[in-house]
């Protein structure tokens, strides 16, 4: 009895295999080792800049080891970041990366505005997870 059921299951299985569309749809081009070596050698080190967001649409910009600068409003922040970025590029030959630190009561729209600002200027960005743990 079981042998008959195994035969039926095998016939159904082979039927599905024959009618299924097994075809290679496209090939992925994988990067070679030479590409990885050239990319890693051309990358410049990033200078991390913290942008802390206050409740009153006030932004505190701080580079590690330096005092913080206050900017009120997203336009002022944009000007401050552009000035800081150009100064770092000229003096050190590096680019900046922004770490966004929203406070507990800061509006979410301010965080989104900073993310949009960094995207417009193609600045790498990330949100600090430790400050997000308060929510």
Per-chain topology:
Blueprint: H1 2-19, H2 33-42, E1 46-53, E2 58-63, E3 69-72, H3 74-92, E4 95-102, H4 108-120, E5 125-127, H5 129-132
Parallel strand pairs: 1-4, 4-5
Antiparallel strand pairs: 1-2, 2-3
List keywords for this structure.
about 45% helix; 5 helices; alpha/beta; Nucleotidyltransferase, domain 5; about 140 residues; 5-stranded mixed beta sheet
Could you characterize the architecture of this molecule?
This protein is an alpha/beta fold and 135 residues long. It has a domain of 89 residues: Nucleotidyltransferase, domain 5. The protein contains 5 helices and 5 strands, in the order ααβββαβαβα. The protein is elongated. The model has no long low-confidence stretch (mean pLDDT 82).
Short description:
By secondary structure, the protein is α/β, with parallel strands linked by helices. The chain is built from five helices and five strands; from the N terminus they run ααβββαβαβα.
The level-1 CATH class of the domain at 44-132: Alpha Beta
Strand content: 15-25%
Total number of strands: 5
Mean pLDDT: 82
Please name the fourth-level CATH homologous superfamily of the domain at 44-132.
YqgF/RNase H-like domain
- The assigned structural class equals alpha/beta
- Point out poorly predicted stretches: none
Major sheet size, sense and barrel closure = 5 strands, mixed
In the CATH hierarchy, the architecture of the domain at 44-132 is 2-Layer Sandwich
The helix tally amounts to 5
Strand order of the largest sheet: 3-2-1-4-5
């Amino acid at each position: 009895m079981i042998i008959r059921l195994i035969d039926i299951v095998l016939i159904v299985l082979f039927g599905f295999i024959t009618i299924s569309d097994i075809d290679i749809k496209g090939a992925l081009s994988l990067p070679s080792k030479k590409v990885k070596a050239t990319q890693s050698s051309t990358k410049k080190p990033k200078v991390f800049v913290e942008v802390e967001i206050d409740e009153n649409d006030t932004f505190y910009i701080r580079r590690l080891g330096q005092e913080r600068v206050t900017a009120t409003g997203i336009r002022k922040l944009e000007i401050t970041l552009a000035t800081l970025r150009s100064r770092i590029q000229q003096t050190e030959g590096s680019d900046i990366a922004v770490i966004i630190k929203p406070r507990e009561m800061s509006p979410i729209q301010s965080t989104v505005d900073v993310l949009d600002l960094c995207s417009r200027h193609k600045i790498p960005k990330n949100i600090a997870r430790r400050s997000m743990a308060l929510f």
